[in-house]
Every structure is written in C-alpha cells, then in structure tokens.
Write a structure and sequence with these properties.
By secondary structure, this protein is of the alpha+beta class. Helices cover 30% and strands 19% of the residues. The protein has 3 helices and 4 strands; from the N terminus they run αββαββα. The strands form 2 sheets. Strands 1-2 form a two-stranded antiparallel ribbon. Strand 1 and strand 2 form a beta hairpin.
Amino acid sequence: QMARIAEAGGADAILAPGATIHQWQRGDGAAVFSAYLERLRQFDFRPNRGAVFSAHQMGTARMGEPAGLHVCDPRGRVRWAVAGISANQTIRGLYVADSSLFPTAIGVNPMLTVMLLARRVARTVIAEAIAG
C-alpha cells in the first residue's frame, strides 16, 4: 500500500531494501508498476532478509528568519508564498510543530527537540486563540 501511495503522490522512484533490492522508476509504465507491486507482495521479511524502518523527516518546512529562506516563522506559523517568494505574512491558524521545522536533518533521534518545538508552537496556538 505504501508503494501505491508513493506512486499516487508523484514519487519519481521507490526503493524497497532487503536481501534483494526492489526498485521502481516513474516512466516505466503501468505494467512495470504492476509487476513491481507483485514483487513487493512476495518480499521476504524473514530475519536478515528484508527491512522495515522509518526516518525522521527534517528540515522540510524550516523555521526562522528571513522569510525568503524559511517556510515558517520562528513561532511555527506557516508563511504565505507569492509567486515562489515567501512573504513575511503568516496563514492564520496554520502551524507546523514537528521536525520539519529543523534547519536540516541532524542524523540523530530528535525526540526531545521535537517535544520542545511542539510545546513552543502550542503556546503560540493558545496565545493566538485567546487573543482571537
């Protein structure tokens, strides 16, 4: 199902690591994608054969100043983008409160930092809700 979601979302390539790497490239055609899905159905997940893992996606909606370099302001509010140029105005009620706010991927588990960022953004949400 994840391969179907990735393909529908516009992924250029999908890679399933294991003892044998299964890879698909966009542009190979519907028949090739169907064959890829069948190979995934047969994937061997016995110990040391297949891998299931996740990654911490970081830095995809960086927070900070100036507006031209950061999607979110220092409080996690998402900025407007006009013709590819980020404006210094924010979209009311739209916040990011996860590792997307990082300036880049840090290579370690970001649990505590994410908790602190979420708390900082939550305080902004509450303050703005009270202010109306």
